[in-house]
């Protein structure tokens, strides 16, 4: 009876320890915790990584095809034979296909990156994303055409058809990159303004010496002027997106660089005011 | 030093040396001893059993006590660790949620920290840097 009692006691202790260990080792899973279910950003990141790998491989293939195309074209130009023409047509078709592959993957990557970026107005963002969709459709069509092009004329036609697509693509890429940069700078500016306001309140409230107080106030007038300048530069960049006809191509980039430099100056001034 | 003199009466000598009486009584004496030895054996056995049981109980009891004490200590350590971890988490979260320094120095430190964070954000927002440059492909391929 005593042996049975001691065994029961041992079993009780062991089960208690096991329960405790389970509670400690196994982390609690909350309804809104990130491990509860994969978020959309995680799947987007995975998609983006997969596209990057695909892009690298396709770019390597394109570079090889482009080298082969250059050799075949030079040989045809020198020899002017039917065999060399056949080789040149085949290598042209190959390089056109691999170029389209690279551009399609790159456009998809840009589309995802752009859709993830913050600080951009929703209507501007949606307009740009639709533009990407249209370009992707055109690129796929061109890819299909290149797949069917087996003669010199059809290959030439594919190259001609690609010309407007390439200019559209370049414009979309530069615009989306500018918009993404604008979003980053605008978000940084918003944070800077909030920090400026807080530092201004703290510094002026803490200052007891009248001479020092007026010095700080003058410093904040200068900081406020810089902030106003940055704000107007950023508004000019935004206007260039909403009214593209009023600006030339380089103007928004210049405005954005001016705004960025202005933020740099503001941060530097704020550091000085805080430490002096 | 003189030894005390033991004197024995003649009657007493007779009684003690009465071999006839001893011969009659001898079996009785023997019986009594056997009965006594049987009962003492039973008693001894009972005592031995009791001693063994006692020893067993004595042996089992400390084992249970040691095991129980060890288990309790283990549980206490684990509970203490869990409580400490929770306290640390609560502490760290409260420091994030409540950045309200009271003194001037603390305010200045907090403002400086915000400025430092802005400086690192500033480096990341450089508009001349792009993470996805246009692919190095020829856009004018023709035969």
Q: Can you characterise this structure?
A:
The complex is a heterodimer of chains A (276) and B (143). With 276 residues, chain A is mostly helical. Chain A has two domains: 41-177, no CATH class; 185-275. Chain A has helices spanning 2-25, 40-79, 82-116, 122-148, 152-206, 210-242, 251-275. In chain A, helix 6 runs antiparallel to helix 7 (251-275). The longest helix of chain A is centred in the middle third of the chain and has 55 residues, at 152-206. Chain A starts with a helix and ends with a helix. Chain B is mainly alpha-helical. Chain B has three helices and no strands. Chains A and B meet through helix 1, helix 2, helix 3, helix 5 and helix 7 of A and helix 2 and helix 3 of B.
Can you give the mean pLDDT of chain B? 73
Q: Please indicate the count of domains of chain A.
A: 2
- What is the count of DSSP helices of chain B, taking H or I runs of 4+ residues? 3
What characterizes the major β-sheet of chain A? Answer: none
Count of DSSP-assigned helices of chain A: 7
For the largest interface in this structure, which chains are involved and how many residues does each contribute? A-B, 67 and 43 residues
Overall, the morphology of chain A is elongated
Name the structural class of chain A. Answer: mainly alpha
Taking pLDDT < 50 over at least 5 consecutive residues as the criterion, the unreliable ranges of chain B are 93-99
Report the portion of residues of chain A in β strands. under 5%
**Helicity range of chain B:** over 70%
Average pLDDT over all residues of chain A: 88
Q: Unreliable segments of chain A (pLDDT under 50, ≥5 consecutive)?
A: 26-36
Indicate the proportion of strand residues of chain B.
Answer: under 5%
Q: Roughly how many Å is the radius of gyration of chain B?
A: 51 Å
- Secondary structure tally: strands of chain A: 0
The biggest sheet of chain B, with number of strands, parallel, antiparallel or mixed sense and barrel status, is: none
Shape of chain B: rod-shaped
Oligomer: heterodimer
């Amino acid at each position: 009876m005593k042996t049975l009692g001691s065994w029961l006691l041992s079993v009780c202790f062991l089960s208690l320890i096991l329960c405790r260990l389970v509670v400690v080792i196994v982390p609690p899973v909350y309804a809104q915790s990130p491990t509860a279910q994969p978020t959309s950003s995680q799947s987007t990141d995975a998609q983006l990584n997969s596209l990057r790998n695909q892009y690298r491989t396709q770019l390597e293939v394109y570079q090889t095809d482009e080298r082969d195309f250059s050799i075949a074209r030079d040989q045809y130009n020198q020899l002017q034979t039917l065999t060399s023409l056949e080789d040149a047509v085949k290598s042209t078709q190959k390089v056109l296909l691999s170029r389209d592959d690279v551009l399609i993957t790159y456009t998809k990557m840009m589309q995802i990156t752009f859709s993830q970026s913050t600080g951009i107005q929703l209507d501007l963002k949606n307009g740009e994303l639709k533009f990407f969709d249209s370009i992707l459709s055109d690129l796929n069509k061109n890819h299909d055409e290149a797949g069917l092009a087996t003669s010199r004329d059809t290959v030439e036609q594919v190259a001609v058809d690609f010309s407007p697509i390439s200019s559209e693509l370049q414009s979309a890429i530069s615009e989306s990159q500018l918009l993404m940069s604008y979003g980053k700078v605008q978000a940084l500016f918003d944070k800077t303004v909030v920090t400026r306001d807080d530092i201004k309140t703290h510094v002026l409230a803490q200052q007891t010496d009248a001479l020092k107080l007026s010095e700080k106030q003058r410093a904040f007038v200068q900081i406020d002027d810089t902030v106003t300048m940055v704000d107007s530069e950023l508004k000019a960049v935004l206007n260039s997106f909403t009214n593209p006809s009023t600006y030339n191509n380089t103007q928004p980039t210049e405005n954005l660089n001016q705004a960025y430099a202005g933020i740099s100056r503001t941060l530097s001034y704020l550091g000085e005011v805080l430490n002096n | 030093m003189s030894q005390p003199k033991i004197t024995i009466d003649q009657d007493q000598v007779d009684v003690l040396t009465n071999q006839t009486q001893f011969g009659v009584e001898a079996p009785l004496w023997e019986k009594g001893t056997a009965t006594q030895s049987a009962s003492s054996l039973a008693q001894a056995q009972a005592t031995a059993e009791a001693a063994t049981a006692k020893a067993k109980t004595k042996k089992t009891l400390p084992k249970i006590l040691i095991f129980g004490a060890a288990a309790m200590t283990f549980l206490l350590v684990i509970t203490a660790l869990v409580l400490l971890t929770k306290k640390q988490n609560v502490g760290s979260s409260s420091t994030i949620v409540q950045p309200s320094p009271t003194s001037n120095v603390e305010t200045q430190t907090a403002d400086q920290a915000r400025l430092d964070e802005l400086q690192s954000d500033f480096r990341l927002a450089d508009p001349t840097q792009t993470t996805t440059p246009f692919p190095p492909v020829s856009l004018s391929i023709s035969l």
